[in-house]
Design goal:
The complex is a heterodimer of chains A (386) and B (351).
Chain A lengths: L5 E8 L11 H16 L8 E5 L12 H4 L10 E4 L5 H14 L5 E9 L5 H4 L13 H17 L5 H13 L14 H4 L4 E3 L2 E2 L8 E10 H5 L6 E10 L13 H14 L4 H4 L2 E3 L7 H8 L8 H6 L16 H4 L3 H17 L12 E8 L4 E8 L4
Parallel strand pairs in A: 2-3, 2-4, 9-10
Antiparallel strand pairs in A: 1-7, 1-8, 4-7, 5-6, 8-11, 10-11
Helix pairs in contact in A: 3-14
Chain B lengths: L3 E8 L10 H16 L8 E5 L2 H4 L20 E4 L3 H13 L5 E9 L5 H4 L16 H15 L4 H18 L10 H5 L16 E12 H7 L4 E10 L13 H10 L8 E3 L5 H11 L7 E2 L9 E2 L3 H14 L5 E8 L5 E8 L2
Parallel strand pairs in B: 2-3, 2-4, 5-9, 7-8, 7-10
Antiparallel strand pairs in B: 1-5, 1-6, 4-5, 6-11, 10-11
The chains are: A alpha/beta (386), B alpha/beta (351).
Chain lengths: 386, 351
């Protein structure tokens, strides 16, 4: 690969919660940006270009809000770029920002993704009836629950696996000061008593609706080498897309996800992902997507993802921790969620994850998906240069 | 930097009030640009799309567009909530990383799906400006007044820009309005929204624009005479109109300087002029010499403005002038936002 090296040297995120009434959209964005710049030892004046991502503009009601955010990011006179790839957008925005550096075009790039869901009504914005289209009035849960059902039937997974994932992620979130939900007292028994929302998805097995933002500072190798701060080197990035629906499409384990992971590992020189990757931040908005992605990403054999969950492989103490931050199940500002995954992966190899740090993490995966499980964005970051 | 060239361009018939869905609009133009390039879709290794949810009134409106691409087996694809010209920028950047060699980019917009003058107000500060619903025409009117008062643009230059756009539009054919009026005739018409007359406003359109770019040898294989992207840069200005000198386009000037527009003669410049006063503001910012440079020979967005596609079309028409030998060095420009807030400029060369 002819690309130039790129390192993450700054990671920032907001304190996420249901309603951040204390800040405007711009204030929310600046909270994440200022924290990322502070950890990089930089200011906005040092930044060459800014890449902004968020999910549908209708969630807040501002059309192409990056144009308005120009002033709060001191971006006048600079390049500002806007990415929107559905739920994967936080991840693909980080990738586009990395490409600003890997292409050799820029040396110091800031990227930020956000969603202030309390400014609008996400359920409404996700379910606008469209002329000539298939109406999806049930929101994301109604869309994904039949796919989960299909996974359970194919794999023979017992019904409590989803609740196990949920309890793990909510427990992990208590170690993450930025997480939206801090609920320390969950047990599997209590989880299985929560109401059924979209069978088989129970209340605890679904993500919250959050206000939040995440930001990363990425720099070229020559800049990174002069800076005495923790670094996460971008070893590889990959994206894949496929259509939402067609006859014979495997919606449980989409081909786009499999190909994306294969490409990602190949470019990172990884031949055995389960052995070589130390920790993963994977986009799991509904608990059952953890066993499904374990298989889709090539960590577990087909139909065995749920056994990994049952055996504790994805616990913080397990062989392959999934979402030590608490994941999307504990924090979900839609447009930012992918970038939080990418940033948390970077924090792990930078040794900055605090109480949810996986000791000795050297290689980490960040993952995001969107649409009807059809858009995928992933990266591998490492503590050493690739 | 790798040599990357535009190798094919296609633009849909511009209409207003199409009953087609975005997917139905996109399919023929994507097929046409592939045909123009003489390649199969499997030879495209990166796809990038520019569009805007607020135009269709539907969140995730671009998701269905993947259906228009034959995305099976799965493709490497991305989307920008920007004019298609920025999709071209992302694809150019992707090729620079070495991860792609051939990219197809497209932009689509259905301006007739809503009241764009009103909808575009929602780009403004949601707390202090948007709730006043100023409308795009009023904001552009403020910009035009500032330019007229400062003397950076004259009323005659506005009429000349409109007159030329309408005459060039008649030759182009694929526009919504055309005419043969002189600038004097246009100036004799009524002012409808001061300082604008009707011909100073863009003819809003529904349309799709698609371009294929390719690196080095792939470009030479696909096109007889690729339009090599020698440099490309984009910049943004303050949004707050009160903080900007609206008599100038600062961000366009920076982008033009970065790509070295005035380092050599410019045969043609396709400028994304949506209101007639933009043309002179852009000529000033890009330091073009109208006596030496043919300005927007396609007629431009004044006579057919398919939002989110019209900027990419400027790149396409510039490239066409290189393809057919009309130009050896061309400038392509696109913009978005009120009063030229964000600008992208590229220098294309045939040799």
């Amino acid at each position: 690969m002819g690309a130039n090296r790129c390192a993450v040297i700054g990671v920032g995120q907001t304190n996420h919660t249901s309603v951040r009434a204390d800040v405007s959209i711009a204030g929310l964005v600046r909270e994440a940006v200022d924290r990322a710049l502070e950890s990089a030892g930089m200011t906005l004046a040092d930044i060459d270009a800014i890449v902004i991502g968020k999910a549908p503009d209708m969630l807040e009601g501002v059309m192409m809000p990056e144009m308005w955010l120009t002033d709060s990011l001191a971006a006048s006179g600079k390049p500002v770029f806007r990415v929107h790839t559905a739920g994967s957008v936080g991840g693909s925005t980080a990738i586009v920002a990395a490409q600003h550096v890997m292409s050799g075009i820029h040396k110091r790039v800031l990227t930020v993704a956000f969603e202030k869901q309390s400014d609008g009504n996400a359920m409404w914005a996700l379910s606008v009836p469209t002329p000539f289209g298939v109406p999806v009035h049930a929101g994301a849960g109604g869309y994904f629950s039949p796919i989960i059902r299909s996974y359970m039937r194919r794999s023979g997974a017992p019904a409590h696996i989803g609740a196990m994932v949920a309890v793990k992620d909510r427990t992990n979130a208590c170690k993450n000061p930025y997480a939206h939900l801090h609920e320390p007292d969950w047990t599997l028994e209590k989880a299985l008593e929560t109401p059924m929302l979209w069978d088989p998805v129970r209340f605890i097995e679904t993500c919250p609706s959050s206000d939040g933002a995440a930001a990363l500072v990425m720099v070229s190798e020559d800049v990174a080498d002069t800076m005495n701060v923790p670094k996460a080197w971008v070893h590889s990035t990959a994206m894949r897309s496929e259509p939402t629906m067609f006859a014979g499409r495997n919606q449980v384990s989409p081909r786009a996800g499999e190909l994306c992971a294969e490409d990602l590992y190949r470019k990172a020189g990884i031949t055995n992902p389960l052995e070589e990757i130390d920790v993963c931040e994977v986009y799991v908005p509904f608990s059952w997507f953890e066993p499904m992605w374990l298989e889709n990403l090539g960590f577990a054999p087909k139909d065995h993802g749920w056994r990994f969950v049952e055996d504790g492989v994805t616990e913080m103490t397990g062989k392959l921790p999934f979402n030590p931050s608490g994941g999307v199940l504990s924090t979900n500002p839609i447009g930012a969620s992918g970038m939080i995954r990418f940033g948390e992966a970077a924090m792990q190899v930078m040794g900055l994850a605090g109480e949810h740090q996986i000791d000795g993490a050297k290689k980490a995966m960040g993952h995001a998906y969107g649409g009807g499980s059809q858009f995928f964005a992933m990266w591998i970051v490492g503590s050493e240069k690739n | 930097m790798r040599d990357v060239g535009i190798v094919a361009f296609a633009e849909s018939q511009l209409t207003y009030g199409t009953t087609n869905t975005p997917v139905e609009m996109i399919v023929p133009t994507v097929n046409e640009v592939l045909k123009n390039a003489g390649i199969e879709r499997t030879e495209v290794d990166f796809w990038c799309h520019g569009s805007c949810d607020y135009m269709t009134g539907q969140p995730f409106s671009f998701v269905a567009a993947v259906d228009a691409l034959g995305a099976w087996p799965p493709i490497i694809e991305s989307h920008v909530e920007m004019d298609g010209a920025w999709a071209l920028y992302e694809a150019w950047m992707k090729i620079q990383t070495g991860e792609a060699n051939v990219a197809l980019v497209f932009g689509n917009g259905k301006s007739s799906a809503g009241d764009m003058n009103r909808a575009l107000t929602l780009q403004q500060d949601p707390y202090t400006v948007a709730p006043l619903w100023p409308g795009l025409t009023a904001m552009e009117g403020i910009g035009a007044c500032a330019a007229l008062q400062a003397g950076t643009v004259t009323e005659r230059q506005m009429a000349e820009a409109a007159s030329r756009a309408r005459r060039d539009g008649a030759k182009n054919g694929n526009v919504l309005v055309s005419g043969s009026e002189s600038a004097d005739e246009l100036l004799s018409r009524a002012v409808t929204s001061a300082p604008f007359r009707d011909h100073d406003l863009p003819a809003m359109a529904d349309g799709v624009s698609a371009i294929i770019i390719a690196a080095g040898d792939a470009a030479k294989r696909i096109a007889k005479r690729p339009a090599w992207i020698r440099a490309i840069d984009h910049r943004i200005d303050h949004q707050n109109l009160g903080w900007r000198d609206l008599a100038r386009s600062t961000s366009a000037a920076i982008a033009a300087s970065e790509v070295g527009v005035h380092n050599d003669k410019v045969d043609i410049a396709e400028l994304h002029t949506t209101f007639s006063h933009h043309e002179q503001l852009l000529i000033n910012a890009l330091q073009l010499r109208p006596d030496a440079t043919r300005i927007t020979p396609s007629g431009g967005a004044l006579v057919g403005n398919a939002l989110m596609a019209a900027g990419l079309s400027r790149f396409g028409h510039s490239a066409r002038a290189i393809f057919d030998g009309t130009a050896d060095r061309a400038v392509a420009h696109a913009q978005q936002g009120a009063c030229l807030q964000q600008n992208i400029v590229a220098v294309l060369e045939g040799n």
